[in-house]
């Protein structure tokens, strides 16, 4: 496999570990970017971007980053807090009056950001087309009762996170959620990151598909068992209501829409650059970065049915939990995306890490491919 890009010779072992991924015949395309103190030391890519393996992955190939998008969204909300346009601990309903319905009058932005608001799924079955109708989805969430008492425990809001936080951002900032997030996070840092992709950029988006025959870990098997056997459960609805959530990744309307929980499009470079921007203070003041990365939720996740440890819109490292460690340092924070892409930072070593792939692995938290690469990075430091 021809590995493109460059790397500092000190990180030759990282390049080799990246090349080793392609020993798996199912691996189609991927990219890896490592920055240390803001300086790029690894920027490599390889493989194919399309489903038929006819088109190579290029330096500017984009891919759907899924939940890696959530931290960009959280940082935007925290910037609005810094500006006094939002507040972490006042009721969301102050900014969004309709949200007070059905027992949600005291839910705060902090609870939304840390997945403690009890709103990871919609109870009311939604038609497939509703996925692309912003107003339909935010109205449905505003009308819904929480699944549990807000603030008591946490459950990952896989896709509702985007509408809940996006609507608050829209009301506070005056721009659409995607425009606001990109203008506040990607543009100042020159990142090739998009929420609401222009049609003229579609030609460089990698086609995403699952690998076959890999059963994943125990955590994903628990979730799959529930989704197969309990269609009305909260976990099933979190990923499957509307049902189009699971089947839309490669569709033009998915790329065009602004769903800031799950449909950011970018590359490994944009993930590493974003986390470098957090480490160097470009995106948030130190006090707000401390809020972002402070533990807010720990323990059994009501949605993911595994142990999660969360800050405000980021996942925090659990070194002793095999599916929940980024694989670098215990202070690491960041966010995996469905299927294997991940962006994170290790503040102790000043490392920012971005890995993206269009070959989806079946894991609910960390993909072993990225963990293995991060461990090799640690050995090179």
From TrEMBL:
Residue intervals of the Beta-lactamase-related domain: 18-374
UniProt GO molecular function: hydrolase activity
SUPFAM superfamilies xrefs: beta-lactamase/transpeptidase-like
Superkingdom, natural source: Bacteria
Classification via InterPro entries: Beta-lactam-related, Beta-lactam/transpept-like, Beta-lactamase/esterase
Pfam families: Beta-lactamase
Keywords: Hydrolase
Name used for this protein in its record: Serine hydrolase
